[in-house]
Amino acid sequence: MRKPTLFPATMPSLTLGLGLGVGLALALASGPAGAETGPIRIGVNEPLTGPFAASGTYVVNGAKIAADEINAQGGVLGRRIELVIEDNKSNPTEAAAVAEKLITSDKTPVMMGAWGSSLTLAVMPKLADYETPMLVETSSSGKITTSGNPYVFRISPPSALEAEAFAPMVEKIGLKKVDFIVINNDWGRGAAADFAKMLKDKGVAIGLVETMDQGAQDMSAQLAKLKGSDADTIMITSAVDQLTLLFKQMSALGLKKRVITTGGSQNPDQIIAQAGGAADGTLHLTTFLPWYPEKTPNPKATAYFIEEWKKRGFQFAGVTESFRGYDGIRTIAQAIAKAGSTDAARIKAAFWSVDFTGLNGQIRFAKSGPAGRESGQSKPEIYLIRIDGGRVVMPEL
């Protein structure tokens, strides 16, 4: 059977070689005789309020596009899929409570979540308690797939994988000494540790490591220290709204050093819109190239997704977040189809046989973590882009 490159869609623009192989397409669209006929419920645990609300909303809207696309083809196992969407309020305690509700009250056999690393880590004990799998679409803390939770399957790169992909670029960019300013949570601290380790191995000196609370708006004290440092580069990990504030405050302070943000911590188009010229020259690691669809692993699928996103009236800026929700739901749907069941244990087992080309690379899971309790980790593409004159460009290295 030909390997799938995209879940089937009815849009005329997607009829040119983007469908699934016949066998899996039939599995998606039909179920066994006597099977249940109600919708298959998929939990969605994302931040829709709080500091990460913009990103979580983008992810949810991408998930809705995937659900609509799959349902237009007859659903999975002959049943429609239904997204049960809950707001974790950008709060770890809420994220854990949402997970428990989705499993026990809403009876979802699988979920997607939870955007931030601290949010996902808070959810993970609930997954083990209730033996329910979760597709992790955004979180990058290494602990998520190395702590021994076999119910976790991640399509976003951990910070260590980002650092590994960035390593060949270090000498070409000319990094000599690097300072960090990161959000004070598992995501930010993990990124600083993983990138610092890689940079040290490459002979780059590590200077200051400054942190900021996720709701902080005045980073002048930390930025003053960074301005006085002899480092040539500042690496930043934070969400887009805080990044915007950082760039504006750096500009006001006259802090003119090379800036690189780690993947998952930015939305370049939103930064351009909100920070204006203060963002010019900044470099960003990203896992999706919507500005250059022809350079993505699945150009036709990328073009379709961007077209559908725009048709729904959403801002283009959201595409770099929303694609994760889109690929996340498509991954879950393929696992359910391969399981031939909505039983949580069978879906968990079926994740290991998922294999298709997502918008940012091949989605298939390798084992990560302690033997016998491995999590699943996919390996997406990682790119470096630069904001130049209000445009996103790919620097020549």
Can you tell me the number of structural domains?
Answer: 2
Form type: globular
Residue-averaged pLDDT, rounded? 91
What is the end-to-end distance?
40 Å
Domain Leucine-binding protein: 39-368
Keywords: Amino-acid transport, Signal, Transport
Signal peptide: 1-35
Pfam families: Peripla_BP_6 (PF13458)
Label this structure with key terms.
single chain, 397 residues, alpha/beta, Rossmann fold, seven-stranded mixed sheet, 13 helices, 41% helix, globular, disordered N terminus
Describe the structure.
With 397 residues, the chain is of the alpha/beta class. The chain folds into 2 domains: 12-157 and 292-377, Rossmann fold (3-Layer(aba) Sandwich), CATH 3.40.50; 160-286, Rossmann fold (3-Layer(aba) Sandwich), CATH 3.40.50. It has 13 helices and 16 strands. Strand 4, helix 5 (143-146) and strand 5 form a beta-alpha-beta unit.
